[in-house]
Design the sequence.
């Protein structure tokens, strides 16, 4: 079984530019989550998809962040325009059912550096 | 509000020594508790979990954690660590979403 795949593994962009992160969950997993770890701080929840619907987007920091999951398969997280404080590691995770009912499988993360 | 506190940001230890990584949580409702591990250059992996039932849970590589409701703790222990246990360990509280602690870097020295 292929795991959760994230592209790219690293991205370095300048302030004001746009970046799109992609996550391919494990096939058949309806639940998809995005998390972020800013340098030196805890991993924080961004949002949760169930299939193509946003179940919870309470963790999205501001309207510069846009997440989509067209067709309930892969997901993208776009940051436009990027700011310095957006630097960090963005993790994607997927699961068959919700928290506690099935384990979350994490990708290796995308390390975003905004200069 | 729900939160997780990992008191130690770094824990250095010699190989074959015992280790305890501390975790305390706060929640007004019943929750699930997890330990996730991130080895160098890898993604997060589930190490062990407490959902219900027995308060002592174990992983396949010798770690164990005990859910203590009265002390609101879920400390992770291993009686004898290996070099390969060097990693960052996250205590995680699960309700409708996962809430992570700040992580503890375990460094095992030969």
Sequence:
């Amino acid at each position: 079984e292929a795991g959760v795949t994230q592209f790219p593994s690293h991205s370095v962009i300048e302030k004001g530019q746009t970046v799109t992160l992609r996550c391919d969950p494990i096939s058949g997993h309806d639940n998809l989550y995005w998390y972020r770890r800013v340098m030196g701080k805890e991993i924080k929840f961004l949002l949760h998809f169930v299939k193509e619907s946003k179940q919870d987007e309470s963790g999205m920091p501001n309207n510069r962040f846009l997440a989509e999951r067209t067709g309930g398969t892969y997901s993208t997280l776009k940051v436009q325009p990027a700011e310095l404080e957006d630097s960090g590691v963005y993790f994607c995770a997927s699961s068959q059912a919700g928290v506690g009912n099935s384990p979350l499988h994490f990708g290796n993360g995308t390390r975003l550096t905004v200069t | 509000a729900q939160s997780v506190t990992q008191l130690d940001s770094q824990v250095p230890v010699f190989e074959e020594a015992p280790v305890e990584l501390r975790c305390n949580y706060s929640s007004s409702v019943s929750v699930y508790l997890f330990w996730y591990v991130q080895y160098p250059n890898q993604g997060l992996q589930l190490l062990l979990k407490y959902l219900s039932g027995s308060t002592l849970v174990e992983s396949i590589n010798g770690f164990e954690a005990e859910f203590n409701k009265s002390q609101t703790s879920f400390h992770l222990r291993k009686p004898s660590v290996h070099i390969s246990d060097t990693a960052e360990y996250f205590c995680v509280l699960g309700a409708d979403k996962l809430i992570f602690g700040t992580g503890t870097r375990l460094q095992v020295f030969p």
Notes: Chain B has a mean pLDDT of 92. Residues 61 and 94 of chain B are 23 Å apart (CA to CA). The longest strand of chain B covers residues 87-94. The interface with chain A takes residues 32, 36, 41-46, 49, 51, 90, 94-103 of chain B (CB under 8 Å).
